[in-house]
Write a structure and sequence with these properties.
Elements lengths: L2 H18 L11 E4 L11 E3 L4 E3 L16 E2 L7 E2 L9 E3 L15 E9 L4 E10 L2 E11 L6 E10 L3 E10 L15 H10 L23 E9 L4 E8 L4 E9 L5 E9 L3 E10 L5 E11 L6 H14 L1 H15 L3 E5 L2 H16 L24 H12 L3 H13 L1 H10 L32 H17 L2 H22 L1 E3 L4 E3 L17 H21 L5 H8 L5 E2 L4 E2 L32 H17 L6 H13 L3 H10 L5 E2 L4 E2 L11 H15 L2 E4 L2 E4 L11 E9 L2 E9 L5 E7 L1
Antiparallel strand pairs: 1-7, 2-3, 4-5, 6-11, 7-8, 8-9, 9-10, 10-17, 11-16, 12-13, 13-14, 14-17, 15-16, 18-27, 19-20, 21-22, 23-24, 25-26, 27-28, 28-29
Length: about 750
């Protein structure tokens, strides 16, 4: 190889580093979320993830943290399927002689100058402080990322600058978690039995002070059993093969990078029941900086190989080096941020939009058929796929990142067989998708205590609507015929067999339904369900025509005669049949706002729309308690549809208060509880911009301006950057014309 060719990799790396902007100072502040020592007592962990695997964050940046892998589930008999925590990979510990860093109590006088920053533009977590303990001080910097460019890889880098001479200890563990205790037979426990069991274990399901999670007693992680593990102290590698309880196999490996010229006094491999580690004793000099890097490779059955393959990946990553891996990772994130939502006029809202997009992107994949678990790559809501995946996350991604929305609809195509079997179980035809689907198999794993939600059947309409939206946005006829149409057809067959005909009123009804306002369990003619079912049936007729299939004539008959409860005197919709009192205290107060939900958007007159919205607000006050964020974020959409930019802006502001837990804007289910990481709430906030303020709708004839756009007072503009629709790319800007009114402009790019 000539000298010229030898230089090319270095030149390429320099150009890559320059193009990705390695200086944090160059990053737009709206992409930066920072914690200080003031957050020590209320630190609500975030996570780093690339859609395939993750690690939770921690205050020091070096602790052992739970980690999870996409659709990697524990199937312990008697329990529901739940995400199996994979061995914790991000930990590095350091002992300057007076005590281990990760065991020393948190205090502003011990961790001085503390600052931890989640850079959402780069997808990195950086932590720095001076560790002052036992009369020794060390400057510490930690940087961790889960690669967006190489999905099997992650790395964490510890840089220390000791203010003394001497020997120090470092350990690079992989944590082998024990099985969570107690484990409850949630597959068979009633609600009362579960509450009693939780209390008997010394826990509660009550709201907790930040940052304690509310539902850890029942949303505990599943177990990964390590089948084989080993390491090589000379090669500085660790590896393991494992298996989720009664589930899939997985593997993990680590390769440790040491600073050049380091004097290693001792290097040992530690193997115990709960830890696999490389332990070093090294000599350091005062004022000299030392950098240690832990390169990780992870895989699971049907995604990657075994431990030997991961060792090869981790050691190859070590040869490539941290800086180059980080540059590639940053470049991948920067590519994602070419599609963005830009708010000119409210920095706080802009930061919230970016954090919500960051969490959606961190959990999405490309060219797969995996859904989005309700609480991302965490054990929240047991990792199951709800309507959240189809009706909340999918529309939020569809125009900004269609390639990352597609796996959600592909999951429903992949799991049609379990849905067919479930339909037979309940005596209906076609496909009946479960309320809580296992993200790997699609099988129903709704907890027994929530058994009644088998009646929350609107999920089947939500799925059909998402399938049609993907087709409309992509224009992919081949996909519709091969994947989308079979799903849509099976769901139409379900609805045709699930409705009943009321001869006296000449209408079709749907009885024994759980409303989206779930306290109303087993009601007739829930308006949201009936409206969604009607839309799904009409979609099936249109899809049949597109693929050259024959639609069942009954689908149109049922749709045309579907009963949507309505109060003629009040000129508004009812939540459900008037025979059921609307008097319960719930998280939502009412579900009428969801009739205005963008992917349903039930046609109604402007006056009815105003009346529905007014009733929703009234009921939220008189029958609402600790409102659910999924409801709250949609009120901005409802206000925008009414042309009320001021009220829409007020609801956007309201959704910044209490729901975003510091320091990393983790959204929680309600203000008072700490059920966090719910992607539907982040996606709902995003939808309030993409479909709410813009007035845009995905319709049969294109991306339509269904409503006039609005802007909250004080905002200069809103830009939806790099929107993709039917293969074309646009910037869509809402700003004010000379008359002060909001106007929408599309610019092809």
């Amino acid at each position: 190889m000539s000298p010229r060719h030898h230089l090319l990799p270095g030149i390429a790396l320099a150009l890559l580093l320059a193009s990705t902007g390695t200086r944090a100072a160059a990053t737009d502040p709206s992409f930066l979320l920072t914690g200080t020592a003031e957050n020590f007592g209320t630190y609500f962990p975030s996570y780093l993830a690339n859609g395939y695997f993750s690690t939770m964050t921690s205050v020091r940046g070096t602790e052992g943290n739970r980690a999870y892998m996409v659709a990697f589930m524990d199937y312990k008999p008697g329990d529901i399927a739940r995400p199996a925590a994979i061995p914790g990979w991000s930990e590095i510990d350091y002992n300057p002689g007076g005590g281990w860093l990760n065991s020393t109590r948190l205090g502003a006088n011990i961790f001085t100058g503390y600052k931890q920053t989640l850079d959402m533009h780069d997808g990195t977590l950086s932590t720095r402080y001076r560790f002052e303990y036992a009369n020794k001080a060390t400057d510490v910097e930690v940087t961790t990322f889960v690669s967006q460019a190489s999905p099997h890889l992650a790395a964490t880098r510890l840089t220390i600058t000791p203010q003394f001479d001497g020997s120090v200890q470092l350990t690079f563990p992989i944590r082998l978690w024990s099985e969570h205790q107690p484990r409850f037979p949630i597959a068979s426990m009633s609600g009362d039995e579960m509450i009693a069991a939780v209390i008997a274990s010394g826990q509660t399901l009550d709201n907790k002070p930040v940052p304690t999670p509310d539902r850890a007693a029942v949303w505990y992680p599943g177990y990964t059993r390590v089948a084989a593990s080993d390491g090589d102290a000379k090669e500085l590698t660790l590896w393991l093969d494992g298996q989720a309880e009664h589930g899939l196999t997985m593997a993990e490996a680590a390769a440790i990078g040491l600073p050049p010229g380091l004097v290693v006094e001792d290097a040992k491999l530690e193997k115990s029941l709960y830890k696999l580690s490389l332990n070093l004793v090294v000599k350091v000099q005062k004022g000299k900086t030392y950098t240690f890097t832990k390169y990780i490779a992870a895989s699971r059955q049907d995604w990657g190989g075994k431990a030997s393959d991961d060792v090869a990946l981790a050691t190859a990553a070590r040869r490539k080096g941290f800086d180059r891996l980080l540059a590639e990772h940053r470049a991948a994130w920067h590519g994602l941020w070419k599609s963005d939502i830009v708010v000119d006029g409210d920095p706080q809202v802009q930061r919230a939009v970016h954090s919500d997009l960051y969490y959606l992107l961190s959990n999405s994949t490309v060219d797969t058929a995996w859904p989005m678990g309700a609480c991302a790559l965490t054990p929240g809501y047991a990792g199951h796929a709800f309507w959240d995946s189809d009706s909340w996350v999918f529309p939020a991604l569809l125009l900004l990142h269609p390639e990352r929305a597609k796996p959600i609809v592909m999951f429903r195509a992949r799991t049609m067989q379990p849905a067919r079997e479930r339909a037979k179980q309940y005596g209906v035809k076609g496909t009946m998708y479960p309320w809580e689907a296992d993200p790997e198999t699609g099988v129903d794993y709704t907890p027994h205590f929530a058994y009644g939600v088998f009646r929350e059947i609107h999920v089947n309409a939500d799925i059909a609507i998402a399938q049609w939206q993907y087709y409309l946005a992509s224009g992919d006829d081949a996909w519709l015929k091969q994947r989308g149409w079979p799903v849509i057809r099976g769901i139409a067959q379900f609805w045709a067999s699930r409705v009943t005909y009321d001869k006296g009123h000449d209408r079709y009804e749907i009885e024994h339904v759980t409303s989206p306002d779930e306290a109303y369990d087993d009601v007739p003619n829930d308006s949201f369900t009936n409206a969604a079912a009607r839309k799904a049936l009409r979609i099936a007729v249109k899809a049949a025509a597109k693929v050259g299939a024959k639609a069942d004539p009954q689908w149109s008959v049922i749709a045309d005669k579907m009963y949507i409860p309505f109060d003629e005197k009040a000129q508004r919709h009812l939540d459900f049949d008037a025979s059921v009192p609307h008097d319960k205290i719930t998280w939502m107060g009412s579900s009428l706002a969801w009739l205005m939900y963008p992917n349903l958007d039930l046609p109604m007159s402007p006056q009815v729309r105003r009346n529905d919205f007014a009733f929703q607000l009234h009921e939220l006050k008189v029958h609402g308690d600790d409102p659910n964020e999924m409801m709250m974020v949609m009120l901005a959409v409802g206000a925008a549809e009414l042309g009320d930019g001021k009220t829409a802006g007020e609801w956007i502001q309201r959704n910044l208060v209490g729901f975003l837990k510091p320091p990393f804007n983790v959204r929680t289910e309600t203000v008072a509880n700490n059920a966090g990481y719910i992607l539907a709430t982040s996606a709902g906030f995003v939808q309030s911009f993409v479909y709410g303020l813009s007035g845009l709708r995905i319709e049969d004839d294109g991306l339509a301006e269904a409503y006039a756009p609005v802007l909250p007072p004080g905002w200069k503009s809103l830009t939806l950057k790099n929107i993709t629709f039917r293969g074309r790319h646009y910037d869509i800007t809402i700003d004010r014309g000379a008359d002060g009114k909001a106007k929408l402009t599309r610019t092809a790019i």
